[in-house]
Amino acid sequence: MRPWFPLLAGSVFYAFALVWAAGELPEDGVPLHFDPAGVPTAFGTRAGFLALGTLFGLLVAGIGAGLYRLVTTGSLARVSVPHRDYWTAPQRVGRLRHMLAEDMGRTFGGTLLLLAAVPVTAVYATRSDPPRLPVGPVWVVLVLLVVGIVGYCVYLGRYRYRPA
Q1: Helix (H, G, I), strand (E, B) or coil at 8
Q2: How far is the C-alpha of 2 from the C-alpha of 5, rounded, in Å?
Q3: Are 30 and 44 in contact (CB under 8 A)?
Q4: Is 143 exposed, middle or buried (0-12, 13-18, 19+ CB in 10 A)?
Q5: H helix count then E strand count, the chain
C-alpha cells in the first residue's frame, strides 16, 4: 500500500460523512457541542455545522499532506527520530523518509477517519428527543482513541525506529 493511501482514504470517508450529514441534518437546531453526559450545550444551523466541519477537515487534511510532503522531500534537519545518527546516514535516508511518510499517512488518515464520526453523531443526536448522544459508546470510542494513540506512539518510539 502506498504511504499516502490512509490519508486519502480518511479524507474520502470524512468528506462522505459531511455530504451524508448535509442531507440528514435539520436546517436549524444542530447540536454543535456536548457535555460529558451527552447533552448538547450549543446549537447552530446545518450550514454553520457543515462550514465548520469542512474547514476543520481541510485543515487536518492540509496539515497531514503538508507534513507528508515535508518528510518525503524536505529537509530532515528538524525531524526528531530515535537513533537519529543511524537513520540520517545517507544509505538509510530513503528508508527513513518512507517510514515517516507511512506514519504521517496513518496518523492523519486515522484522525480523519475518527473525525468522520462527528457528523454521524450529530445526525444521531438530532434524531433523539430530546437531542443527546449515548454516553457509553462515546466514552468507549474516546478511551480507545487515547489508548490507540499512546500505543502507536510507544510502538514508534520503542520498536519501529530501532536500528536493524
Answers
A1: helix
A2: 5
A3: yes
A4: exposed
A5: 6, 2
Q: Which residue has the cell 437546531?
A: 29
CA dist list (Å): 40 to 37, 45, 49, 129, 145: 9, 14, 14, 12, 22
pLDDT at residue 49, rounded to an integer: 97
Q: Is the peptide bond before 130 cis (omega within 30 degrees of 0)?
A: yes
Is a pLDDT exceeding 80 seen at residue 130?
yes
Amino acid letter, 28: D
The predicted structure's pLDDT at residue 68: 94
65 band by pLDDT with thresholds 50, 70 and 90:
very high
Q: Are 70 and 90 in contact (CB under 8 A)?
A: no
Q: How far apart are CA 45 and CA 65, in angstroms?
A: 30
Q: Please name the amino acid found at residue 141.
A: V
Cβ pair 84, 100 in contact under 8 A: no
